[in-house]
Write a structure and sequence with these properties.
The structure holds 2 protein chains of 2 kinds. By secondary structure, chain A is α/β, with parallel strands linked by helices. Helices cover 22% and strands 37% of the residues of chain A. Chain B is of the alpha/beta class. Chain B has a domain of 312 residues. Helix content of chain B is 22%, strand content 32%. At the A-B interface, strand 19 and strand 20 of A face strand 21, strand 22 and strand 23 of B.
Chain lengths: 426, 508
């Protein structure tokens, strides 16, 4: 079917600014991804999947400028022992990064290996993204597969002693990076991946994650700092039998953020937890779009999303649990909640269940409201000033999502950050 | 299903009604017979001439004909909606009859005594006798109630025409107008003109636009200020003719401080070819008024292999215009091969309230995509949604809803609960709620669950000596209790039976 003219024109305009990296094993994958983009076109506001979020800033040919935030505040995770991999405006910075060798894991740079004739990443690069295009097209992810020049490929073979930390720095006001990461976790292996920093004025990231049977991957991400940046991120994860994948994202600031997670539970007894907490203030539009597919027996999935909104901030949640016909004994849970601190903010949600098996327990909850006046009154009656009481209640509201982080030290760091952000923006 | 011996003892703790319901199940679809009656058809297909002809047959004034023709023009520009989770072969809108009436109705009978006995017998057989002495007979339990207390006025629509409305005199005394919409267009044009199309605009959606062009009959209700309608009003829709679509239009106006309860029932014969039903219901609720609208939709669902059945595309909407107005939708959807229906409330007046209670049961190859919209515009508006979906066989059952809190809807509240029950591993149950909150004093709570029939409960019932289908019917009735309780008494009984019947053959 031919694309509508407006969409066709917008897609062509965006593609005209990009050039496809040539050579090596990745070229066929990139060309196939480009064909996917051309077939469905880039999203516009008429797409149902973008009903609540206008994709204009993510699609327009040139990235909208974004000022770099000058702050002397230390970055998240700074106090942790970790394997640092730094990207400046989307380009790997070997000076700022650690030596990439670490026991139990092999880390390589995409830009380097993409030129080779053959590499294990070939089996995954663009593969999970392509699987994630059904039943809903995600053209911005395919665009990333086609054009991303940098990123890391991580092969977890054991249990590395330190988390692998991807640090993104934003220096040019018009930077428009695309990063594509590929992660493979071997049977029985376990690792933690951290991501933080504002990668550019406009950032597109795709992470394809393949967790083999009995493998475990933790993913903790902090998006914040710059007020004007926009970002679209995609996680595509495929989980084998008895494997575990837990992902948590905290978002503060940013003009527009769309985080998509497409999780497929393909082996029996797999577990996936996806959680997010965001604090939005003012010109802030944050969209969590989650699609969890149960395609095996006895799997568990949890989606926990909490949004604190004020001064006209907009929070969006589109979450779906799809249970395929033979995915019996599925335990699916989804909660999305918004706390609106004033009258101008908006919460738009579409929590979906699609269930084709009968022996399942699936539920979702979705609420929106203001701060509990009685709880506030109680705290104030105990002598706590109103602002502090509001912070405490806000943190308590966010706690359910933060609790999804397994490592208590990392969870504490996130809570401390949230608290300082709340105080600062008051 | 093994029919229960009538003399068998009712086990302790088992609801008598449920046992009765199970007993009732003789055939599969009770209302699948047809009436052999001479019919008069308009030629097949849809053209401006057909629209004019329908208007002419109804002896409508010119403004109405023009209104229909304008709708027809709009319809030509509209596309069939594709977003619902329903899958059906393309409908050939030119291969349908848009007008069919029994020949005996060519001259409109002056009173019920003049109506063709065959038609009266049809309704008799459906348990809806069109005589004023009787209450809704054929509904178990109703006999026990004193007749006076349970009067129900019935408007009976057969294919394209209303064949009669009972208790019109009694209602006139109270000032209530209850008649077919075609009578209303002739007798009360000022009211119809003032309100028709104000809640569901002509170009609202593909099916509503089609309906606006070709609607043939339906009911009209006007309750004047301060009047509490002295009896329940009811419309019974029967599709009889083959290849004929039914397009009815209902307009209910509850003026300031009035109250009315309206019931709607529908059935159709078994046919191998699917038939189209596209209705529009508009309700206007003024200050302090209250409307209860209950539906038991039991159109022919198609056979076990998914052949035939009614395609049911319905637009129902209530506009709570006045402060403190209230509307309550209750629906039991057991029939139809395809259901596409979202009874909605626009809560415009401050303190207005909307409620939606729904049971949707799909079995065999039925597909239902149904739910509601609650649009909160006024201050302190409240809405409550309770939806119970039951899916069995190869059926697909979807709840689709919208709760929208506009910036000015200060202190608005919504509570939504939607539960799905799955019986068998080939069926599907889905929930697609949209929640849009644009002010922080509004509180929205949404919960949805999906699960299978609780094994422990089934085991308990079986251990008390019930057979499996009986046990399932009981558990399902328990699951639906919240909604069944919202129905008027006669309908609750009928609905409870329907729940059992609709699930027949679902336990393997």
């Amino acid at each position: 079917m031919a694309l509508p003219e407006i969409k066709q024109t917008a897609t062509e305009a965006r593609l005209a600014t990009l050039s496809l990296p040539e050579g090596g094993w990745s070229e066929p994958a990139r060309r196939a991804a480009l064909a996917r983009v051309q077939r469905v076109g880039l999203p516009d506001r008429r797409d149902e999947y973008w009903k609540f979020t206008r994709p204009d800033a993510l699609v327009q040919p040139v990235a909208p400028q974004a000022a770099v935030l000058k702050s002397d505040e230390s970055m998240v995770f700074d106090s942790f022992e970790r394997l640092k991999i730094v990207f400046v405006d989307g380009v790997f910075d070997p000076q700022a990064s650690d030596d990439l060798s670490l026991e139990g894991v092999s880390v390589e740079r995409l830009a380097k290996i993409a030129e080779q004739d053959i590499h294990w990443a070939r089996d995954l690069y663009g593969t999970l993204e392509e699987r994630g295009q059904e039943p809903v097209a995600r053209p911005l992810a395919a665009l990333n597969t086609a054009f991303a020049r940098d990123g890391v490929v991580i092969h977890v073979t054991g249990k590395p002693s330190r988390p692998i930390s991807l640090i993104y720095r934003h220096e040019a006001e018009d930077s428009d990076p695309m990063l594509h990461h590929v992660v493979r976790v071997d049977p029985g292996a376990e690792a933690t991946i951290l991501e933080n920093g504002p990668a550019g004025a406009r950032f597109s990231a795709v992470m394809e994650i393949d967790v083999a049977d009995t493998g475990t991957l933790h993913h903790i991400r902090a998006q914040g700092r710059d007020h004007e940046r926009s970002a679209v991120t995609h996680i595509f994860a495929r989980l084998g039998a008895e494997s575990t994948f837990k992902s948590f994202t905290v978002t503060v600031n940013g003009h527009l953020t769309r985080n998509e997670a497409v999780i497929e539970l393909t082996g029996d007894d797999a577990v996936a937890h996806i959680a997010g907490a965001c604090v939005g203030d003012g010109d802030f539009h944050h969209d969590d779009t989650i699609f969890v597919t149960h395609d095996a027996l006895n799997c568990e999935s949890r989606q926990v999303f909490k949004k604190v909104l004020r001064n006209g901030a907009v929070g969006v949640f589109q979450g779906k649990i799809l249970v395929k016909p033979d995915a019996q004994k599925t335990d699916g849970y989804q909660i999305s909640q918004a706390l609106m601190l004033d009258d101008d903010s908006q919460f738009l949600a579409k929590p979906e269940l699609e269930i084709h098996a009968d022996d399942v327990a699936c539920s979702h909850g979705c609420t929106s409201g203001a701060i509990d006046e009685r709880a506030l009154y109680y705290l104030r009656s105990r002598g706590i000033p109103k602002a502090r009481a509001t912070d405490l209640l806000t943190l308590a509201f966010l706690a359910e999502a933060v609790e999804e982080i397994e490592d208590p030290a990392l969870a504490d760091d996130i809570v401390a950050r949230l608290e300082s952000w709340l105080i600062r923006r008051r | 299903m093994t029919a229960l011996d009538h003399s068998s003892q009712v086990k302790e703790g088992v609801d008598q009604d449920t046992v009765e319901a199970v007993r009732e199940v003789g055939g599969v679809y009770k209302h699948g017979w047809s009436t052999d009656i001479e019919m008069e058809y308009a030629p097949k297909g849809l053209t401006p001439d057909i629209v004019r002809l329908i208007s002419e047959k109804n002896e409508e004034p010119e403004w109405m004909t023009d209104w229909r023709l304008a709708a027809y023009d709009r319809w030509l520009t509209k596309k069939e909606p594709e977003w619902a989770m329903i899958d059906y072969p393309e409908i050939d809108f030119q291969d349908q009859y848009y007008y069919a009436r029994p020949k005996s109705m060519m001259v409109k009978p002056k009173s019920l005594d003049e109506v063709d006995p065959k038609l009266l017998a049809t309704y008799e057989k459906l348990g809806i006798p069109l005589s004023e002495q009787m209450i809704l007979a054929g509904v178990e339990g109703a006999e026990a109630t004193p007749a006076e207390a349970r009067k129900v006025a019935v408007d009976a629509v057969f294919d394209s025409v209303s064949i009669g409305t009972t208790f019109q005199e009694d209602l006139k005394k109270a000032g209530v107008i209850f008649c077919s919409i075609s009578d209303a267009i002739r007798d009360h044009p000022e009211l119809v003109r003032k309100y028709l199309g104000t809640v569901v605009p002509v170009s609202d959606n593909f099916y509503a636009t089609l309906n606006s062009a070709v609607f043939t009959d339906g009911s009209f209700v006007y309750v004047p200020p301060g009047v509490r309608c002295p009896m329940e009003l009811s419309t019974y829709f029967r599709i009889n003719a083959e290849n004929t679509g039914q397009f009815e239009r209902t307009l209910i106006i509850a003026d300031k401080g009035s109250y009315v309860s309206y019931l709607e029932g529908c059935t159709a014969p078994k046919r191998d070819v699917a038939q189209l039903h596209a209705a529009v219901v508009e309700i206007i609720v003024e200050e302090d008024a209250e409307v209860k609208y209950s539906t038991v939709q039991n159109w022919y669902p198609g056979d076990e292999d998914g052949k035939g059945g009614i395609y049911n595309f319905v637009t129902k909407r209530a506009d709570c215009r006045g402060d403190r107005s209230k509307v309550m939708w209750t629906q039991v959807e057991t029939g139809s091969a395809v259901t596409w229906k979202y009874p909605s409330c626009i809560l415009r007046g401050d303190d207005s309230q909307g409620e939606f209670y729904s049971i949707a049961i799909t079995n065999h190859w039925q597909q239902a995509d149904t739910g509601t919209k609650m649009i909160h515009l006024g201050k302190d508006t409240k809405s409550r949604i309770v939806s119970k979906g039951i899916s069995a066989g190869q059926a697909q059952n979807t709840y689709r809803g919208l709760v929208s809190m506009h910036p000015k809807a200060q202190n608005a509240r919504n509570y939504t609960q939607c539960d799905s029950l799955l019986i068998g591993d080939k069926c599907g149950a889905h929930a697609i709620p949209y929640i849009e909150v644009k002010n922080n004093s509004a509180r929205v709570e949404h919960e949805a669950t999906a699960s299978k029939v609780d094994e422990d409960q089934l085991f308990y019932c079986r251990s008390r000596g019930m057979d499996e289908e009986e046990a399932v019917a009981l558990v399902v009735n328990g699951f639906c209790k919240d909604v069944l309780q919202a129905l008027p008494m006669e309908f609750a009984m009928e609905a409870q039976q329907l729940v059992a019947i609709s699930l027949e053959g679902s336990v393997g």
